[in-house]
Automatic annotation (TrEMBL):
PROSITE patterns: HTH_HXLR
Protein name: HxlR family transcriptional regulator
Taxonomic lineage: Bacteria, Bacillati, Bacillota, Bacilli, Bacillales
Keyword Transcription regulation: yes
Alphabetic keyword roster: DNA-binding, Transcription, Transcription regulation
MF annotations from Gene Ontology: DNA binding
SUPFAM superfamilies found in the cross-reference section: Winged helix' DNA-binding domain (SSF46785)
Length: 110
């Protein structure tokens, strides 16, 4: 058996979570939406580092996995607002712990 497959079998729950969350930009989108619902353009401005297509892909993936809610308002032009679902809000504690770890160890060289 390949080493990577052995590691994945040792941590099936973590691998499942990473599959649900998808790409690295998903973490930033969740963190930003934890501050409250946002329209796409506002979210994109707040996450200027993320390219438009990458953000779109991350939001679609998160929506498909029940993390993000996409709400369309029948205005002219159409208004789309993104927010976290209950499942997405529940992930905030994990993000906070990741932030603590990054502050403690992220920039340090050993």
């Amino acid at each position: 058996m390949e080493p990577q497959k052995e590691e994945a079998q040792g941590y099936p729950n973590i691998c499942a979570v990473l599959q649900i969350l998808g790409a690295k930009w998903a973490f930033l989108a969740i963190a930003e939406l934890s501050k409250g619902p946002k329209r796409f353009n506002q979210l994109h401005r707040d996450l200027a580092i993320v390219k438009t297509q990458s953000l779109t892909d991350a939001l679609r993936h998160l929506e498909q996995n029940g993390i993000v809610r996409r709400q369309v308002f029948p205005t002219v032009p159409v208004t789309v607002e993104y927010s976290l679902t209950e499942k997405g809000m529940d992930f905030q504690l994990s993000l906070q712990e990741m932030e603590k770890w990054a502050v403690k160890w992220g920039a340090k060289e050993e």
